Amino acid sequence: MKLWGGRFTKEENQLVHNFNESLSFDRKFYRQDIEGSIAHVTMLAKQGIVSEEDRDAIISGLKGILEDVEKGTLEFSPEYEDIHSFVEANLIKRIGEAGKRLHTGRSRNDQVALDMKLYCRDEIREIDELLRGILKELLRIMEENLDTYMPGFTHLQKAQPITLAHHMGAYFEMFSRDRGRLEDIRERMNRCPLGAGALAGTTYPLDRDYSARLLGFAGPTLNSMDSVADRDYVIELLSALSIIAMHLSRFSEEIILWNSNEYRFVELDDAYSTGSSIMPQKKNPDIAELVRGKTGRIYGALIALLTTMKGLPLAYNKDMQEDKEMTFDAIDTVKGCLALFTGMIRTTSFRKDVMEASAKNGFTNATDAADYLVNHGVPFRDAHGIVGQLVLHCLEKGIGLEDLTLEEFCAVSPVFKEDIFEAISMKTCVERRMTLGAPGQEAMRKVIQVYKSRL
Ligand code: ARG
C-alpha cells in the first residue's frame, strides 16, 4: 500500500521501492511502533479527536497485529515501505474505516523518532542488565582471589606485584562507568517526540504531556523541528557502545595473552575455545579474539552515523533512515559480546601458582627493597641505585632478589638486616599497599563492599 497515492500518477519502479524501503530492517521495532500508536490513539480519544468506539477498535486491532506478528501468522510482506505503513495498512484491513483515523495529528517523522527512541531505551535496559552480569562475575573472581599474587605491568614489563582481585577490579571500574554512561543517555533522551508531526506540530489539540506520560517519558520534547531531526541520542548510544567494546577488547587482549604458552596465567574452558584443523596441539581463544575483532564494526557504526548527520539541514531528511541498520547491528553485537565474554570468564580457571611465580621472577619487589632502605634512613635516590646494583647481580646469577643471601645484600649496603626477606616477600609487598584503591587485602575489602552495594 502506498501512503501517498493521491498525488502520484505513475507506479513506483521496483528498484526505487527496494532502495527506498526500510521494512526489511525497521520491522525490528514493530512492538515499539504498536506501543506508540496505542498511546497516540488513547490521547486522541481523551482529547475528543477520535471517538472512544474508534479508539477501542484501533487498540484491539493493533493488539491483534502484535499477537499475529509474534505468533508468526502475520508476515512482513515486502510490498510495504516501512513498519509504519505495514502496521497501518494491516489495521485498516482488519478493522476498516476506524483504522484510517489512527494517523490523525501524526507524521511518520515523529512516529519514527518515537519508535527509535523507545527501541534504544528498551535496549539500554538490556545492555545494562548484561553489564550487571559481567560485574557480578568480576566480583566473584575478586572475592576468590584477594591473595592471588601476580605481576602488575607497565609497558607490558613486570612492574610491581598486585593481585588478580586488583586486576579484575580495574575492569569492574570500567564496566561500572559504562553503566553510568548508559544511565546518563537514558536520562537525557527521555523526552517524547510524539506530536511534533512532520516538523511543525499540528493543528489538533493534542495533549503531548499525556502521551509522553503514557509512554514512560519524563515529558514531551519542546521543539518540533528538533524532535524529528534529533539523532544525538543514537550517536551517544553508539559512543557508549564503542567504549564498552573498547573495554571488552582490552580485556580480551589480556585473556588472549594470558592464555598463551608464554604466560599460561589462565586456562580457558573447552566450551569457549576452538581447535585447529591442522595443528592437533592447539586450543585457540577464538571467542576473545572475536570480541576484540568486532570492536571495529561498532566504531564503524559511530563514525557512519556521525557522518550521515553532519550535513543535514533541518528538519527530517530521508538520510536519517540510515541510522537503523548500523545501530541495530552495533546493539546486537555488543549484547552478544557481553554475553559470550561473561560466559568465558565464568568458566576460565586462573593458574594461581603460575601467576605468583611470574610475579616473583620479574623483580616486582625491587621498589619494596628500595623502600626498605628508605625506611632505614637511606635517601630514595641512593636506595634506587643500591637495588639497581643488586638486580644486576641477580640477573648475572639468574635468581630473584629474595634468593640472595644476607651477605650478598650487605656487600652492596650494610643497612640490610635479616628482616629484608620478610620485607620483600610477595605477601608483604602486596599487603603493605593499603592506600584506598591499592591491591592490599584491607584496601580491596573496603572497595569490594562499595561494589557490592552498587549491584
Ligand atoms: N523509514 C523512515 C525512516 O526510517 C520513516 C520516516 C519516513 N518519513 C518520510 N517522510 N519519508 O526514517
Describe this structure in words.
The chain is mainly α. The protein has three domains: 5-104, Fumarase C, Chain B, domain 1; 109-356, Fumarase/aspartase (Central domain) (Fumarase C, Chain A, domain 2); 362-454, Orthogonal Bundle (Ribonucleotide Reductase Protein R1, domain 1). It contains 19 helices and six strands. A two-stranded antiparallel ribbon has the order 1-2. The chain has a two-stranded parallel sheet with strand order 3-4. A two-stranded antiparallel sheet has the order 5-6. α8 (208-214) links the parallel β3 and β4 (219-220). α10 packs parallel to α12 (323-346). Bound molecules: arginine. Arginine is lined by residues 22, 26, 82, 108-109, 112, 316, 318, 320-321.
